[in-house]
Structure formats: C-alpha cells, structure tokens
Amino acid sequence: MDRLGLIALLRTQSDFVIVGEAASTSDAAALCKRLQPNIVLLALRLDPGGSKSAIGPLRARCPNVPILAVAERGEGQCLVLNPPGSRRGDASAPGACSSGTDCLQLAVAEGATGTIRRSATPEELFRAVRLVASGAAWYESGTATAIMRHALTNGAAGDPKISQRELEVAELIAAGRSNKEISSALAITEPTVKKHVGHLLLKLKLQDRLQIGLYVARNPLFLRPLGSRRD
User: Fold this and answer.
1) How far apart are CA 18 and CA 3, in angstroms?
2) Of 1-5, 61-65, 89-93, which gets the smallest average pLDDT?
3) Alpha-carbon torsion 117, 123, 126, 131, what sign?
4) Could you tell me if 193 and 179 are in contact, meaning their C-beta atoms sit under 8 angstroms apart?
5) Assessment of whether the complete model's pTM goes beyond 0.90
6) 164-223 is classed in which CATH architecture?
7) Which phi and psi (to 5°) does residue 137 adopt?
8) Residue burial 17-48, b: 16+ Cβ < 10 Å; e: rest
9) Where are the domains of the chain?
10) Hey, which of 29, 96, 204, 212 would disulfide with 57, CB 3.0 to 4.6 Å?
C-alpha cells in the first residue's frame, strides 16, 4: 500500500513516468539493470524484515543510475538516534552522543545521490526527484548539515586517531563478543584485547564496553575506515 500510494503521488506530475516497481532488493536490481531509469526512488528497508538497504546491490548492477533514498521514519522516530527511554541530546545518559548517524547519512555513504524524509511535502519530493534525475545532488537539511559537519571536522586537531585493530575490536564489541572471543577471532592475546579496549575508552572518552557498543551502534560510519587504516 505504501508503494502504491507513492506511485499515485508521483503520477500527478505530467513529466514523471513510473517505469517499474519492486518489492525486494533482487527485483529492484534486476529491473534497474534492464530498464536503466533516470532515477531510482528507494525505501531504505526494501526487503521485508531486512536491515540492509538495497543501495549496494543497485550500485553494483547500475552504477550510473542516481538513487534518491527515502527514510523509513522521520528523524524524531529513529530508534537508533532516539532509543526508548532516552532523551536526545542528554549528555548525562550512558554512552550518549550528541549526533548519532541515521539511515539517510548511511545512504549517502553507500552512494545515494539524494535523500528525503517521510515528513517532506509532496512539492519537496517532486523537486528532489527532478534534481536527482537531472544529475544533481539533493539532500534534506538534516543530512546536508551532517555531511557538512563531518567534512569540517574530519581530520581536525584533537580528533581521536583510531587504529584499524582498534576498529576491529570495537566492531566485535558491538557484536556482543567477549574479550576471549575477540582474542580468538583476531588471533591476539586477551591482554592485547584489553589494551585495545582501554585505548578505545580513552580516545572516545567512554566509560565501559557497553558504551563502546552503543557508540558504534549510533555511529556506524565510525567503522568505515576498516581496511583503509593501519595500526
């Protein structure tokens, strides 16, 4: 019903033609490759019950087709940015961070050309579709601000330098692995794991392993340097 409603809305514009629709990532990628549309309007959780977006598979099959990513929820309803029982921006909350990474920021990192929230007006949606289809980028204000903030602070003085090994340890902590399990997975000793955990706590100004896991969950782009940094 959600997809049909969006299609009906888009069809009110005389210059829009809906050439295909899909309910799964595999169908979307196959249609995109066959039809080569001017733009793909993509819900970020296309697969029922899935947690990964279809941006990667679409980019692999249709690298030149621009993607406009549509958030499943508004920023205020994002469970990653606003976990139950928390007050956003409450610096006293355990593991609190002032600006978590939401699904639209992740979509940009994965290759989306534009982003829009469900709270946007039809006119904003139409404008975004036209601009992205023309080859321009279009980001809703929150995503644009986050991109600018990241660009301005990336590599800034005082920014913690996290080694690749520390990133690997943080990823495994976020996955619920114990020090012993991390030691086995990375082929390092448990004292070495504890050393890396200590470095993470110090560099990220956190208090315990739980806060490291929460930090990674709310800031998944933190792990993107994996494979591109050295110890």
Assistant:
1) 12
2) 89-93
3) negative
4) yes
5) no
6) Orthogonal Bundle (1.10)
7) -90, 145
8) eeeeebeebeebbebbeeeebbbbbbbbbbee
9) 2-153, 164-223
10) 29
pLDDT at 1: 83
Nearest to 106 by CA among 54, 156, 162, 152: 54
Concatenating the DSSP letter of every residue in 25-68 gives: HHHHHHHHHHH--S-EEEES--STT--S-SHHHHHHH-TTS-EE
Q: Of 83-92, 174-183, 197-206, give the lowest mean pLDDT range.
A: 83-92
Q: Report how many helices (DSSP H) and strands (DSSP E) the chain contains, helices first.
A: 10, 4
Tokens 């739980």 correspond to: 210
**Angle ∠(34,137,56) on CA atoms, nearest 5:** 45
What does the pLDDT read at residue 90? 46
Give me the count of residues in the chain.
Answer: 231
Out of 145-154, 174-183, 188-197, the most confident range is 188-197
Q: How do 138-139 and 114-116 pair as beta strands?
A: parallel
CATH class of 2-153: alpha beta
3-class secondary structure, 146: helix
